[in-house]
Every structure is written in C-alpha cells, then in structure tokens.
Amino acid sequence: MTAPATTDALLVIVPAFNEAGAIAEVVGSVHKHVPGVPVLVIDDGSVDETAAKARCAGAEVLPLPHHLGLGGCVQAGYKLAFELGFEYVIRVDGDGQHDARDILRVLDKLKTSGCEMVIGSRFLNSSGIQTGVARWLGICLFRLVLRPILGKPVRDPTSGFVGVNRRALQVFSRSFPLEYPEIETLVVLQRRKFRFEEVPCQMRPRLAGRSSITAFKSLYYITHVLLGVFVNILKYEGRVRRATESAAKQGD
Amino acid sequence: MDRLLNVTTGLSVLLLILVLGSLRRAHIRVEYSVSWLLAGLALLVLSRNQSFLQTIARTMGVVDAPVALLMIAGAVFLLMFFRFSVIISHLRDDNIALAQRVAILEYRIQSLQSGDGN
Questions:
Q1: Of all residues in chain B, what percent carry a pLDDT higher than 70?
Q2: Cα A213 to the chain's mean position, in Å?
Q3: Between chains, do A76 and B100 touch, taking CB under 8 Å as contact?
Q4: Which among A45, A63, A87 has a CA at the least distance from the CA of B106?
Q5: Per-domain residue ranges for chain B?
Q6: Cα separation of A166 and A110, whole Å?
Q7: pTM score, two decimals?
Q8: I need a labelling partner for A231 at 20 to 30 A (CA). Which of B25, B75, B89, B108 fits?
Q9: Given an 8 Å threshold on Cβ–Cβ distance, is A65 in contact with B102?
Q10: Which of A34, A10, A194, A4 is nearest to A89 (CA)?
C-alpha cells in the first residue's frame, strides 16, 4: 500500500482475530461496494488463516507480533494510516456484521459534516438485526451515562463501525483506549471538543465465529468501560487544570 | 505469641532466601528485589524485637502485638502489589507500543522490498 495520491484518501481498516471464516468475504464486499479503496486487515495474532485469506482476497495485511486486544489492534491501523497520510479511515469489523454498502454513507457524512467521527448506528434504522437483551440493556445504560458527558444523545455507543478524519486520527495515533475502545473514544473526542455524528447502518449476523463478549464477560465489560469513561474524564480535567495553572504562573 | 512470632521469623527468612536465590540466578532484577528484601528484613526485625513491636502495637492501638505485625505485613505487601501493578501497567503500554511499531516497520520494509516504496 502506497501513500495516497489524493488529499482526501480513504482507508478501510479491518481489525481481525481468528476471522478466517469471514475475512475473505468482508474484504471482497468492501472491494465490491467501494472499489479502488485500499483495505488494511490488522491481524491481531490470529492462529488461523486470517492473514493468508485476507491477502488472497486482495487486502493489505498488517500482522501484529502478538495478540494486543481490540484497542491495540485498531490503534496500529490508525498509526499506519496516519503515517501514510490518509485523510479518512473507516473501521469495519472482521466478522462480517457490517454492511460494506454503508461505508460510503459514513464517508459522505465525514466529508459533509466536517465532524471528526461518524458512527454507523444500527438503531437509527429499524431494519437489520438489532441485538440481544443483555447487550441492549448495556447499551441503554451507556446511553444514559454518556448523554450528560457528551452533551448530546448517542444511539449506538458500542458500534464498531466507525469513521474518523485526520484530526481524530492524529489524536488516536497517540492515545487510544486499549481494551474496549468504542465508548471511551467518544469521551476522548468530546474532551477535545471534537464532534461526532451517527448515520444509520445495517447490522447482519456474524458470518463465522463467536463474539468475544460472552454473557459471562458482560459484567466485566460494563464495569471496565464505565471505569474507563470516568478515568478519561478525570485525566483530561487534570491536564486542563495543570495547563491552566502553568499558564497562570507564566503570566505572573 | 512466641510461636506466631517464630512463624513470621521463619517466613521472613524464607522470603529473604528466596529473593536472594532468585537474584543469584538472575530470575529477578535487582531493582525489583529491593522492595521484597526490605519487606523481609522489616518482618524479621519486628518478629525478633518484641519490645519494639509492642511499642508499635500500642501506637496503633492494637492490644495484641502479633496482630499489629500481621497488619503491618499485610499493608506492606498490599503496597508492594500496587507498586508492581503500576509497573506492569507501564510495561503493558510499552509492550503494545513496541509491538505496533515493529508491525508497522516490518510492513513498511516489506513494502519497500516489494517496490511499493511508501
């Protein structure tokens, strides 16, 4: 993959861990619906044939030396995209749940709205599968928690179908939540006065494999994410306070 | 009381031997062994010096000196575990950043070798 020739180049990244059953179709679908756009599969230390199948399907593959988890995997893609000079990056999950036809809708919103992040939301559109009861309850809880923090409602805070522009890419290249990034990234962006929008998207059943978030892990997930949200707020407020104090001292 | 203090003495000696042995075999780095050696020595001194231990117990408002010793030992070990959690967190962050950098550099080297030239 070469550095993009145009100033508004798009890169589609696909974080993947043991997605050999779905990755070829995901890559093929992106190539079919968004022709000419490079696809970067970040292989998070898979033990199956994810990397080989992605290459055969025509994707570029960034193989990580060992398993880093979703956040570390996505951030590696963001770092490479930023270094190569891409203006927009859209993340699509490697399990085939996201419909590649929605990529252009996300890209269009990124370009026209000028906001830093666009989320593909399954709840802005009644069609397509929704989610299980446990996850739905979790999403409702996160909506309640995030509403006052973000200053606006977010319908699908756990969506992994996310597009970012170069300003957000710069921030995420330096600092990115490492385990369950979707919700914390919203807080990271809001603290920097960046904006996000949602566009409707279709969610399909996984093409293969099972979700990494099992029922047993849900409680840990909720606790971890809530803690991460509040830590991000505290970290940012602390930085702002120190910067203000430092500026005041210099003024004296 | 004496029996309990003998047990803590034995444990502290065991801890010291274990840490020193690990140091000798290079299983633990010197900078990470200091906390354990200090904790082991403190436990040993307090176990063998009853008057000092009783003074500390009275200061803490604990009637039973061995209970005070166990409380101190517990607090020290909790602090050490916390310190190691901080160290592990830093190492984990560094490890992730390094792994990402290695992956990106490998990718770019392979792109150069294959003529992509980015």
A1: 97
A2: 16
A3: yes
A4: A63
A5: 2-81
A6: 11
A7: 0.82
A8: B75
A9: yes
A10: A10
